[in-house]
Design brief:
mainly alpha, 4 strands, binds zinc ion, globular, about 450 residues
Length: about 450
């Protein structure tokens, strides 16, 4: 039965854990062709074109300022219009889990300053655009050397796994693997690898790769697509920024860069451990819900129960290590200090699409933040920015709103195995978003 007497805090983490489990067993069901893949939500038609351009502009800046090895950091950038400071635009930067005075935060902010200066020059037309663009690209990639090499290694690992496939490969797949092998082998420096990975995305091979990724139930080809996409992201972001800098000449003419001075260091209490699947489901959902093994396996296929239990065992072994996410901390900073966004466009830029909780948090803050691209993944270690819900009534209310949404979605899923989100890369950059896009050096 649903444990209504328990704290909102514990209930939130139970709902989040159930969401985490559901995402994994959906993936299991997919790999057995038990359910069909739902449509992944990306930037929808509700985005107005000019707003979309500014949003991608902020996301692109965030991508170029995120330097650490993949997965270690996420960078968020948002622009404030400071009425009291001659209308100066302040570009606030925040690197998650990094103290505002840490070397990583200072390095990211220095880099943002350098990029802004070049973009300002580009918007004024004082120097050749292409030269400024390539300088920014090389500078960004060189600073993210470890990150690039990490993606290179992961891509090589996925290619090796495909070669070892027991089912064998078609001649077309063998050719595709050869092409990707060549791409990685012939481009030893990080800059050439990233440049060639970007160029690869407009070839016929990339279209074939995207087709394989769509059809492959094991996701192995999708991972390959993802890592090539990641490697190409630096040039994609640099091109976008310099192609569009002139649209924001006004904003770029009077700016400053600042590091968000707050950090989320208050220790939150550890949520109540609940790693037994049956207990977890019984305590999360109302009594009339059938949460038996038979029901779950009816929805997700035979074996789903064991898959879910194994996942919970892994969660238990890891334990709780709650961490704030960059875009949620940035939204909290703008919200509590009632800061004004440039052009009243309440968008928080980030180097990654947002997870399920960050998306819900931005909605729950009632600050009417603009919608961000989403990965939709349910990370159970997500932590609310700001004060603990145990000491703050407003934080507690936000958690309640988020828990209600999480629970409602779980109930819908358990009634009708919806075509929900499948747990995947947090930073998925499907190549489709860049295919066919013009670029500066092709003009
Ligand atoms: Zn998040």
């Amino acid at each position: 039965m649903a444990d209504h007497g328990a704290s909102v805090y514990d209930h939130f983490y139970r709902c989040l854990t159930v969401q985490h489990v559901l995402q994994h067993i959906r993936r299991y069901a997919l790999s057995n062709a038990y359910i069909s893949r739902g449509e992944k939500k990306t930037r929808g038609p509700h985005f107005k074109k000019e707003e979309d351009c500014w949003h991608i502009f902020l996301d692109s800046l965030s991508i170029l300022c995120d330097h650490k090895t993949g997965g270690q950091t996420v960078t968020s950038i948002a622009a404030e219009l400071d009425h009291g400071n001659n209308g100066k635009r302040t570009f606030w930067i925040l690197v998650n889990r990094q103290h505002p005075e840490s070397e990583t935060a200072l390095r990211a902010s220095d880099h943002l300053n350098g990029l802004m200066e070049r973009l300002h020059q580009s918007a004024r037309g004082v120097q050749a655009n292409e030269q400024l663009m390539f300088e920014s690209f090389y500078d960004s990639v060189s600073k993210a050397r470890n990150r690039v090499n990490n993606y290179r290694k992961k891509l090589q690992g996925r290619i090796a796994a495909l070669k070892d496939r027991a089912t064998g490969l078609s001649p077309e797949e063998i050719l595709l693997i050869e092409k990707i092998d060549t791409l990685v082998d012939e481009n030893k420096t990080v800059c050439t690898l990233c440049k060639k990975a970007y160029e690869f995305r407009s070839t016929g091979h990339a279209r074939k790769l995207a087709e394989r990724a769509r059809k492959d139930p094991t996701d192995e080809w999708k991972h390959v697509c993802h890592f090539i996409g990641r490697l190409g992201a630096w040039l994609k972001a640099s091109l976008f920024l310099f192609e569009n800098a002139s649209c924001f000449a006004d904003i770029l003419s009077n700016y400053e860069v600042k590091i968000v001075p707050i950090g989320d260091y208050t220790r939150f209490s550890t949520p109540q451990p609940m790693w037994d699947l049956q207990r977890l489901l019984l305590h999360t959902l109302p009594t009339h819900f059938d949460v038996s093994k038979a029901r779950l396996e009816h929805l997700f296929g035979q074996g789903a129960w064991n898959v879910a239990n194994s996942l919970l065992e892994e969660c238990e072994a890891t334990g709780w290590r709650l961490k704030t996410h960059a875009e949620a901390s940035m939204a909290h900073f703008f919200f509590v200090e009632d800061r004004h966004f440039v052009n009243e466009d309440r968008y928080i830029g980030c180097s990654k699409p947002s997870c399920m909780c960050c998306e819900l948090y931005l909605e729950a803050l009632s600050g009417k933040f603009a919608q961000r691209p989403r990965s939709g993944n349910a990370w159970i270690q997500w932590r609310l920015p700001g004060p603990s819900p145990s000491t703050s009534a407003s934080a507690n209310a936000i958690m309640q709103r988020m828990a209600d949404r999480l629970q409602r979605d779980i109930e819908i899923e358990l009634i009708s195995a919806s075509k929900g989100h499948v747990f995947t890369h947090d930073s998925s950059t499907n190549m489709s978003s860049v295919l066919g896009r013009s670029s500066m050096h092709h003009q």
